[in-house]
Amino acid sequence: MISKDSAKLLNNLFENHNDLTETNNTKRFHPTVVEIKSVLDELHIEGKNCQVIRIEETSNRLAVPPHADGPIGYESMIIPLSFRGKVCTILFDSYYKNNNDNPKGFKYRPTKNKYYKNEWLSPDDEIPSGLSNKPFQNKNYDKLLSYLPIEDLFGLQIKKIVPWQERHIIKFNSNQLHSGSHFKGKKRWLLIIKKIF
Ligand SMILES: [Fe+2]
């Protein structure tokens, strides 16, 4: 868990930045290692190992469909900063197998539907491990995942549902497939992707 002071620093940085690529429903800000040094110290993270540091706020229901943040050898950390009601990060029992140094990550999209104009999708040969050959079936679909077409969850199985708690750290290997849950209003979080080996 990060301290209230750290959360305040992150929220202030986010609220006072100017992002020219900002869209109506999503704001992103990439603070520098120097700007959030006190937060990294608190988390015992060395700035040189950080691949991505990003604060993001979105009201787009489809902002976080199933994907992996990066290849093998990285760890992701989500720290919820603000949200309303129940929000979860859903970890699937599937892994992106790429172990090159491509930090782009992977999108799992069996229908190949693009959710927005000019969206990039992963090539066909990058199939993650752990997929079944069955349609997605889970009692939590209606409550947590019905913002997604069920066809785009084909073969996935939920490993863990992690409810968001403000300032509490959610950690997983960056190559593990995960998605957001349904949410109300806006959600804001800090993402750090760091090299682990
Ligand atoms: Fe992610």
Write the layout of secondary structure elements.
Elements: H1 4-15, E1 26-29, H2 37-42, E2 50-58, E3 67-68, E4 74-84, E5 88-95, E6 106-107, H3 141-145, E7 158-163, E8 170-173, E9 176-180, E10 184-195
Antiparallel strand pairs: 1-2, 2-10, 3-6, 4-8, 4-10, 5-7, 5-9
This protein binds fe (ii) ion (FE2).
Q: How many domains make up the 3D coordinates?
A: 1
CATH class: Mainly Beta
- What would you call the structural class? mainly beta
Radius of gyration based on Cα positions: 16 Å
Average pLDDT level: 94
State the total count of DSSP E strands. 10
Give the ordered list of helices and strands.
Answer: HEHEEEEEHEEEE
Oligomer: single chain
Distinct small molecules bound, one entry per kind: fe (ii) ion
Second rung of CATH, namely the architecture: Sandwich
CATH superfamily: Jelly Rolls
According to CATH, what is the topology? Jelly Rolls
List the uncertain runs: none
Helix coverage percent of residues?
10-25%
Number of helices: 3
Overall geometry: globular
Strand arrangement, major sheet: 1-2-10-4-8
Could you describe the largest sheet, including whether it forms a barrel? 5 strands, antiparallel
CA(first)-CA(last) distance:
24 Å
Taken as a percent bin, the fraction of beta residues is 25-35%
